[in-house]
Request: fold
Amino acid sequence: MRPKIYLFGDSITEESFGDGGWGASLSHHFCRTVDVVLRGYSGYNTRWAVKVAERIFPPVESGGAPPLAFTVFFGANDACLPDRYSAFQHVPLHEYKQNLHSIISFFKKRWPEIVILLITPPPIDEDARLRYDSNTLALYIFVPFFLNTSYGHPYIENPSGLPERTNEAAGAYAQACISVAKECGCPVVDLWIKMQECPDWKQAYLSDGLHLTQAGNRIVFEEVVKELKEKGISVENLPVDLPHIANIDPQDPLKAFQDC
Amino acid sequence: MRPKIYLFGDSITEESFGDGGWGASLSHHFCRTVDVVLRGYSGYNTRWAVKVAERIFPPVESGGAPPLAFTVFFGANDACLPDRYSAFQHVPLHEYKQNLHSIISFFKKRWPEIVILLITPPPIDEDARLRYDSNTLALYIFVPFFLNTSYGHPYIENPSGLPERTNEAAGAYAQACISVAKECGCPVVDLWIKMQECPDWKQAYLSDGLHLTQAGNRIVFEEVVKELKEKGISVENLPVDLPHIANIDPQDPLKAFQDC
Reply:
């Protein structure tokens, strides 16, 4: 059985197998060595993640290998402001830290040897969030078909004209994420800082002020690969599943499969 | 546990999580409902696939759910001509059919209820294959670092000036694949025919005369989704893993997680 790397997070994880997505890129990068397993839940915060972790990650059945690593990528929803229209997703900063601790403890108790890689929320382009709200509102007015869910779309009511997220708040949650990583001895990708190193980060990396463009996805992919490598998890270090074509003798191909 | 769809095949499967790849697109399409598991092996033919199937697909451990479906996508390497430079990958047509039967029998014996979706090899652009050989040869002459494998790159010796694959041969293997599917009652994607319905198929769908462009990947994705849907496997029919954000009550979010 191939080892697994689980991607646990919110919409930025759930969407990571779209075109140029960081999850798909990880799968491609680790093909023949690791199964990258998608466990992204759009809109979720750490409070809900704590509630569902046990159900998402049952103990490995007998004979199954423990996972190699987890990415834990929450905070973008926790950082929704408590007095704006996405307040129901907000989690206070101190609880966000507690919840990250709980998630890490849960994984470490179940699989003591695994690598848990935290990823901070990305920076926020507040103007783009407001433009996105307007566009979404227009879409939902003209295409009421999409409202056919139990509670409608939870994002569309924004009479305040203020964004539901700010870059400052996202930065505070990113800093909290880094603190937790340090406290727990976990590696961390500081996406909030890393993206803002590029002067054009709003256009280059964010598609709607929050979610990632292909270039934004590329950064997450590269940073995750780098951090995993520092923990000894790399294509070079992992056994390849079945003989590589370059290691099959053209004169006697079946020799390579004698032990299969 | 989420149900699984396995992608079993050669390089066109192994590379299917690259940008715009059909495997990544399936993962994205089925996110929150199915785990799409990559089992692609570049250069492999059905003879080798039969040898390794038992090792790749061990019986599901106790408590594990049987897979939902398999895609079986071989033939592009079997169809290498027996008197050209990739002859070591060639498998005679009658054996190709036998091997597909063996693979289907193996899956059906292990998991009687699963859907096995065959995919024929794509058409071949012979001129592009020759251009690709020349380019690869140049690459390997100027970058000898890449030759650092046990047997070197097996594709580079082509003094004949003739392509290792022809579209006619690929068509014969595609037809054989369809026959096997009919004999076994399996759904099948006739990629060889489907792609050639577009007058510009060589440029539109093939990157090197054999492997797929993003548009070519798109066709595989759409055809696989269509065939799976006809067998009752669709996002609409599958349970969603944990409550969707639109079904979480903003007034009382935790209510949605009472049973988790």
